[in-house]
Amino acid sequence: MGNYVCCKGDLKFFGRKEKRGVSNRQSEIKRQELMHTYDTVADFPVYAKVNKNRKEDSVQYADIQVFSRAPQRTVEDVRRFQKAQETEYATISFPRANLNYDNFNGTLV
């Protein structure tokens, strides 16, 4: 009622506007055309050129193979290792001091 009284006009101006001649599908296609499309990125940059002159004769290749076995441990070795690494706990009990009150000095002795 406030709008009607304020503007003193017809309520048809406050209604929704209808789309004329454009369907939702066409507007969706236009939105997709306006959206930014991402470029595909090549594995190696196209502009990069490697022009390093190397002498292939000076390069030497070597095949290196390292064979080693993990040391096999017996059950006794494993237990001995675990005992050496285990945490040891200890309790320390301090004897309680006998506190005596010295009446002459007014202190604890």
Helix/strand structural class? mainly alpha
Low-confidence stretches: none
Distance between the termini: 94 Å
Number of strands: 2
What's the mean pLDDT score? 74
Strand-residue proportion: under 5%
Largest sheet: 2 strands, antiparallel
Order of strands, main sheet, comes to 1-2
- The outline comes out as flat
Helix and strand run: HHHEE
As a whole number of angstroms, the C-alpha radius of gyration is 45 Å
Tell me the number of helical segments per DSSP (H or I, 4 or more residues long).
3
Description:
With 109 residues, the protein is mainly alpha-helical. Helices cover 26% and strands 4% of the residues. The chain has helices at residues 2-7, 24-34, 75-85; strands spanning 101-102, 107-108. Strands 1-2 form a two-stranded antiparallel ribbon. Strand 1 (101-102) and strand 2 form a beta hairpin. The longest helix is centred in the first third of the chain and has 11 residues, at 24-34. The radius of gyration is 45 Å and the shape is flat. The model has no long low-confidence stretch (mean pLDDT 74).
